[in-house]
Amino acid sequence: MKELLARKAVEFVRDGSVVGLGSGSTAKAFIEELSRAVAEKGIRVTLVATSIDSELKALEVGLGPYLVPPWAVDSIDLAVDGADEISRDRMFIKGGGGAMVREKVVDYRASTLVIIAEAHKLVDRLPSNRPIPIEVLPAAWRLVARDVERRWGGKTELRACKCGGKLGPLISDNGNFILDWVPPGPAYPELEDELKAIPGVVDTGLFAKRRDAVILLADERGVFAL
Ligand code: 5RP
Fold it and tell me: Which GO biological-process labels does this protein carry (predicted)?
């Protein structure tokens, strides 16, 4: 399914465009498919990655020469990214891989954003099974956690590093901590800005401002647009 989604997403890549590479396993399938298009069809691209993980994937599949840092581009034509949960009113939660800050930097600026995800990620209520990730300055993590729980309720948890090789909290690509918040009720569009306004919050995995995104979902019957 990820390959089907990746193949469909590659159809959005135009010759000479600046392409944002999302993060996660579905975005990695896209990176692989893109490398095939570049090698076989000679499509020229400039690439901006949303995580170190995606940069490494791009390097692995031969796309390293096309990678530039986000500050080296003036605009982004297309971004292709995954999501953890998508609501029917087209908001999504990202950050299962801890990359939501750079993902938002790139995805929100892309002229066209294509979200690719397996259909089970479409939910009636956001969040359903996943927390809302909140990236915080390390020194502020506990104060932010208290602010969030006091104002909205629910439960926050400091994301632990479960990868082995390091004890304690997970450190994001940006050197920050991540709080995973399970709110007591559904997310609403204004929540994105309300959370971001808390001192110490860098950004969150709640994406409520790209309702214009092309959302491609896949199940055993194939790929379809939301
Ligand atoms: C990483 C993300 C990913 O896009 C999200 O977690 C989906 O990943 P996958 O395609 O592996 O299910 O937001 O921060």
Answer: D-ribose metabolic process; pentose-phosphate shunt, non-oxidative branch
